[in-house]
Structures are given as C-alpha cells and as structure tokens.
Amino acid sequence: MTHSLQADSGWRVWWQLTRPHTLTASFAPVFLGTMIALHYSPIDWILFLAMLFASLLIQGATNMFNEYYDFARGLDNENSVGIGGAIVRNGVKPKTVLVLALVFYGIAAVIGIYICSQTSWWLLVVGAVSMAIGYFYTGGPYPIAYTPFGELFSGVVMGYLIVIIAFYIQTDMITTEASLLAVPSTLLVAAIMLANNIRDIVGDEESGRKTLAILVKRPAAVNILMAFFILAYAWIVVLVISGTLTPWTFLVFLSVIKPIRVVQIFKHHTAPLKVMPAMKDTGKTNTLFALLLGIGLLIEYLL
C-alpha cells in the first residue's frame, strides 16, 4: 500500500494549519496547574478559561510561524510530513499565514492583559518573554527549533511555565508542590518536540539543522525519548512514596500504553508517514497524563 499526502479543503485547511495534534501541549498544563491550585484556593473559572484560550492561541501562532518561516527558507514542500500544509499543499498565501499568526498573538496579548489586571502585572513580562520565545522558535536569524535546545525551551515554556502560571493566577503564590508536579509536564512537552525531530531527522540534517536528534543520532534520540516517558511516570511514583501525592495519582498509569506504543513505532519504522501515529500518541500521552493526574488530584481534594 502506498501512502500519500492529500490537500485539505474547507475548514480543514485552517484547522490543520494550527497543527491540532500539538495543541494538547497547551491545554494539558493549564488543566494540571488549575487542579493543583484547587488544593489552595477556590477556582476562578473565568481566569482558567482565559489562560486556556491564551495558551492555545500562542501555541497555534507558534505553529503558524513555523509554517511560514520553514516555507520561506525553502524547507517545506508538498511532501513534507507533520506540517499544516496550508502553504505548500492548500494554496494559502504565505503572508496570510503570517498575518493570522500575528492576529492570534494580538488576541492572546489582550487576554493576557486581562489576566494581569486580575492577578499581577509581573505576568506581563513572563507572557511577553513566552511569546517572544514562541516567535523565535522558528523565526529570526537563529531559530531555536533548529538547535539542540528546542526540547529544553518547549518543555520549560509550554510545560513547566504554563503549569506554574495556571497555578499562580488562582493562588497568587508559587509552591514547591506546584513546581514538582510541573516536572512531568515539562518532560512530556519536550517529548513532543523530540518525537517531531526524530521523525524529521533526515530532512532536517539535509537542510543544515542541528537538532538534538541529529546530534545524538536516531537510536540514541529514541532512547532519550523513552527516558523522558520513564522519568515522567517514575516521578509520580517517587512523589507518592515521599508522601507528596496520594495513590490516587497512580491513575496516570492508565495512559502508559501510549508511550510504549510510541517507542515501539520509532524502533521499527523510520519513514515519516509510518511514524505519524507515534506523533499523535506522543501528544495523547501528554494530554492523558495531565488529565489523569489532575483527576487524581481532584479525587484527593474531594475526599
């Protein structure tokens, strides 16, 4: 059976432009940070929704900047896998993609100002830095995504930092517990980036990128990805044993089949289209882990 990439039509053109399989990298940390905050103060659901919407907009805009700048540098074509394909397959003008990304950023900034007005104006600085990193991830003369530090920046900003901000806007504080519980999110968001780089390792190397996967070579990169997964789950075990969490948070292990399948796919397949299911399962691992951990915290709170 041959696999090919088809052009999208209608609303799917714009939906695929956001790279929906990556949007969980924004939703999951916001939910987790809010569930941690539940143990400290009542939840302001308007702030929760504002934070969630702003995070999704920033992630979507970051993906659009990626789409635009990779095309502008000649790195994407109609056969590229893992992109939205709006420009190279669906005929959307590059300028339209760039403008839409800036509009997303503008709306996120307005929402961010509202959040700051209800909490702390210091968050304006944090938000501005996060948005700048989102832009320079693939924009500017030295894109972060083309370096070995892509996993670090994506994990810290879209994993750790979002959990902490979501917690802070509800409680007006930062605690050791919140920081500890943000670690798995950091690892799993970094895993999304690493999985992406493993899939694209051949094309990235040909285009001169120096990603972590290229530096350590594919077999080692897959092992690092596996280590990210193992550390995320082991972290919860350690926190339960230490008494920081209750056994209810072992609910996260209901999702463990996903990362196992991801590693198996990467070990047995190298073709980009063949490993696309692994990309989706990496995103699902991040989502399910945070949801199940949050549910465990919610049960602990209710009991």
UniProtKB/TrEMBL annotation:
Keywords: Cell membrane, Membrane, Menaquinone biosynthesis, Transferase, Transmembrane, Transmembrane helix. It is an enzyme of class 2 (transferase). The chain crosses the membrane at residues 46-65, 97-115, 121-137, 149-169, 181-199, 220-242, 248-266, 286-302. One of its GO terms (biological process) is vitamin K biosynthetic process. It comes from the Bacteria. It is found in: Cell membrane; Membrane. One of its GO terms (cellular component) is plasma membrane. It catalyses: an all-trans-polyprenyl diphosphate + 1,4-dihydroxy-2-naphthoate + H(+) = a 2-demethylmenaquinol + CO2 + diphosphate. It is a multi-pass membrane protein. The keyword Metal-binding does not apply. Pathway: Quinol/quinone metabolism; menaquinone biosynthesis; menaquinol from 1,4-dihydroxy-2-naphthoate: step 1/2. InterPro entries: MenA, UbiA_prenyltransferase, UbiA_sf, UBIAD1. Its EC number is 2.5.1.74. It holds the Pfam family UbiA. GO terms for molecular function: 1,4-dihydroxy-2-naphthoate polyprenyltransferase activity. The keyword Transit peptide does not apply. Conversion of 1,4-dihydroxy-2-naphthoate (DHNA) to demethylmenaquinone (DMK). NCBIfam families: menA, PRK06080.1-1. Belongs to the MenA family. Type 1 subfamily. This is 1,4-dihydroxy-2-naphthoate octaprenyltransferase.
